[in-house]
Amino acid sequence: MDNIGEDSEDDDSVNKITTPSSRVILHFDLDCFYAQVEMIKNPALRELPLGIQQKYILVTCNYVARERGVTKLMSVTDAKEKCPELVLVKGEDLTHYREMSYKVTELLMSFCPLVERLGFDENFMDVTEMVERKLADTPKSDSVSFKGHVYNNINTKTPDNLRLAVGSHIAAELREEMYTRLGLTGCAGIATNKLLAKLVSGTFKPNQQTVLLPESVSDIMGCLGGLRRVPGVGHQTAKRLQALGLVGVLDLQMCPISDLVTEFGLPTAQRLKNLSLGLDNSPVTSSGAPQSLSDEDSFRKMSLTQEVLDKIRELLSSLVKRMQKDGRQPHTFRLTIRRHSATNKWFSRESRQCPIPNHIGKKITSGFSDEAVSQLVSLAMKLFDKMVDSSAAFHITLINVCFCNLQSRSTGMGGKGSISSFFARSTSSPRKTPKISTQNQVMSSHIDLEMKSIKINHQYCFRRTLGSKRRGKKFNFTAPSSSHGFTWNKRFVVGGEEVGNFPSNVAECKPQETKSSVIHQLRPNVDPEVFKLLPEDIQKELLSPAYVESVSDGLSKSPRPPPFPQSSDCEIPGNVDPTVFSELPLDVQRELMSEWKQHKPVLKSPSFRKSGRTTTDKDRKPAAKNSQTNLLKFFKPN
DNA sequence: CTGGGGGCAT
DNA sequence: ATGCCCC
Hints:
GO molecular function, one term: damaged DNA binding
GO biological process, one term: translesion synthesis
Shape: globular
Distance between the termini: 30 Å
Protein name: UmuC domain-containing protein
Number of helices: 25
Structural class: alpha+beta
Organism: Gouania willdenowi (Blunt-snouted clingfish)
InterPro entries: DNA/RNA_pol_sf, DNA_pol_Y-fam_lit_finger_sf, DNA_pol_Y-fam_little_finger, HUWE1/Rev1_UBM, IMS_HHH_1, Rev_trsase/Diguanyl_cyclase, UmuC
């Protein structure tokens, strides 16, 4: 089980204190992904304006089409108007895109397992360890230049920038690998966190890459304009921010944290403010195999039970086949619908779910697909009846069937690894492809891949993703210690942001300190004299929780009081500025206090997750418990 | 007439 | 089960 004690022994002894706290994060974004896949399938399409069509929407298009004014998410009608010669390919069946997407992730993972997928066409990678390793191996590393673009074209020589420069070389090589092995082009961004890497990757658009240096953080955030452009700020959040009078990133940067807390609560308030400043300590979490498989279809209208039944059967037979290839057994089934409603057109979905009886689940994995499908169809219809009164008129515009709670059948060997199908090489592949199949090869696949320049032992790339998302980010500092020779890397969770000369790089104030002492907590590159000259309210703002590495995301690399008070009284958590707290409305204070009270006992038992599911984590994402074993099982034993 | 996915937190 | 987020 999780053991906090184990960790404390090895972290500082192994991780030298001098080790830099900033990470090197890569973001990869394939160019017009679906269009590229179609152009690979049919090269004749390359010179033609090509659009990928789902129902009435053009979900993406190639660059020939873009030159003629076609854009993403344009209606087919508009696109045809703009460009009558536009060639359309249906893209509702995602099979090929999904397969290619996982090949990309697999390729990246073969260099460093810490890869997080975002949709089908984007991947984050934490290459900090690779960079350190490369730096240590190359004595003449002083004069490394940047590969690709540098945002704003400015370049100061600092140790952190050197590490980003090495990151840019890694990114370039990985993009080259993607092209030579898979025929795919894409962009990459190199920065110190996921937010910035993602934002910068699109700076130069097709098939190029860009580094963002810390000194340009305020520039890139300022140039963003609308808040919707900030990843993590969706439609709803943007609306609520606008109600507060905030429309641009700069507005959010300058907004008093207390205003945000009243609207969003403390955790979200901090997150939003940090995002606006380019701060993001969220770790790159290995995605591994998907948590759920679903299949859906939308249509104008469906009003007959028989049609519903047929559609569900159709969706299920395809989903069961996919599930079968995956190899895991689903233990939960969910049916989702969208109702037609003239007024409430804005998409609200309803769903019902139920356990999948074991005898049905087994039929899925063991190949009795037809039986499984028909039994699942009746399950689905029962769920449908819970939502829709079939005796009255109804109009459905979407049906989705979903398998989740996926568990590997065999704990040990022989089982078709869950991810094996996603990462499996097609046997018909004309080209020799690297086999990343056996457990041994996971740790040494650089041999198979004939890496020329990135001679990084994969062991050095294992950065623990401490605690999975599912175990709750809040308490991921209680994640298990290394159990296979990998050391708990405290620094990992810290992710101290390097934010150049931004005021916000006052990022490491210790909580609950007096102002006079807190000034000593300023970053070394922040001039205390300058700080003292600032108006007091600005000082307070800089020291407020929004500027502190949030407790929920990690520990400080410097000794710091535990995130929650040890005393039995409910005190203000360490990451909360008492001054700011005291300024909150009383009811908000009370709410926060009771929340903290409830969380406290959790500190000692990270497995509190009331879920009756005393899960043996073996079926969760690879990062969940033990990155090695969990990762290994995703590769074909061969 | 905004698609077909996927994720997380509550 | 829903709502938010991402593409």
